[in-house]
Amino acid sequence: MHWATGAETIVKKEGGMGKRLFLAVIIVLVMAGVVFAQGTKPLQLSVFNPIQMVPEDESIKGVSLDLFYTVNMDFTGFGLSFLGVNQANGDVRGVQWGLGNWDKGYVYGWQEGIVNYARDRFVGFQDGFVNITEGDFTGVQNGLVNWTEGFFHGWQNGAFNYTAGRFIGFQHGLINMTKGQASGFGLGAVNYSDGLFTGFQWGVFNYAAEMHGFQLGLVNWTRSLNGIQVGLGNYNGNKRPLQFMIIANWSF
Fold first, then answer.
1. What SS3 state is found at 41?
2. Where are the beta strands (DSSP E) in the chain?
3. Residue 34, class by beta-carbon neighbours within 10 Å (0-12 exposed, 13-18 middle, 19+ buried)?
4. Is the pLDDT confidence value at 34 over 50?
5. Whole-number Å distance between alpha carbons of 158 and 27
6. Are 246 and 234 in contact (CB under 8 A)?
7. Cβ atoms < 10 Å from Cβ of 58
8. How far is it, in rounded angstroms, from Cα 188 to Cα 247?
9. Contact, 94 vs 79, CB < 8 A?
10. Confidence at residue 225, expressed as pLDDT on a 0 to 100 scale
């Protein structure tokens, strides 16, 4: 019968330890709530929104750790989503790592994920399979697809690079496209500029609606040339002095 008495004692002890542990967790959460109420908010812990320590309408300055999905307003610091998405409905200053990073305000820092998105201005480094910025971008986009709707100033490196607004910098990839006025260097299999391009295009096929500079490739094509084309076939739509030439064409 002694073994039964010993087992009962162990159960009682474990039950007491469990109660004390539960009480300690409650105390920590209450203290954290008091600190957050004071406005410091240095830590976010989340499983998925709304199961998160700091509500989504408040901001974080410090560290954010989530398993699947967390949402806050402004974020400053380091955010890590182990299996999901970091989202900020305001501005971000710092580093975000996750499968996805989704920000609706300004971003100053580094996004690392499969899909990275910034709705407003981005300054820093976007690195992932798909990088999208709807506003202006200053810095580096590195991924399979890099897409910027606003003014881009920096370097795009990927399989497909696209800028809709003004472009100043370097595009390096399989396909490089600019829709607005562009200045800089395009290096890829296809370099396509729908507006005025000032600088150097080097690829298999180079196109610029208006080219001021140098095109080097297998086929070079422009509707208006102020510069030099070197390649197997070179087309200059303004026909000054020649519309088409092999090896080289020029117009000044």
1. coil
2. 43-48, 51-52, 60-72, 75-81, 85-88, 92-97, 100-103, 107-112, 115-118, 122-127, 130-133, 137-148, 152-163, 167-178, 182-222, 225-236, 244-251
3. exposed
4. no
5. 50
6. yes
7. 13
8. 20
9. yes
10. 98
Burial of 42 (0-12, 13-18, 19+ CB in 10 A): middle
Domain range summary for the chain, segments of one domain joined by +: 2-251
SS3 247: strand
Q: Can you give the pLDDT at residue 103?
A: 98
Residue 239: pLDDT band with limits 50, 70, 90? confident
Residues in the chain: 252
Tell me the C-alpha distance between 171 and 191, whole Å.
9
Q: Which two tokens stand for residue 17?
A: 């330890």
Contact 173, 160 (CB under 8 A): yes
DSSP letter, residue 56: T
Please say whether the beta carbons of 182 and 163 come within 8 A.
yes
Which amino acid is located at 59 in the chain? S
Side-chain half-sphere CA neighbours of 141 within 13 A: 35
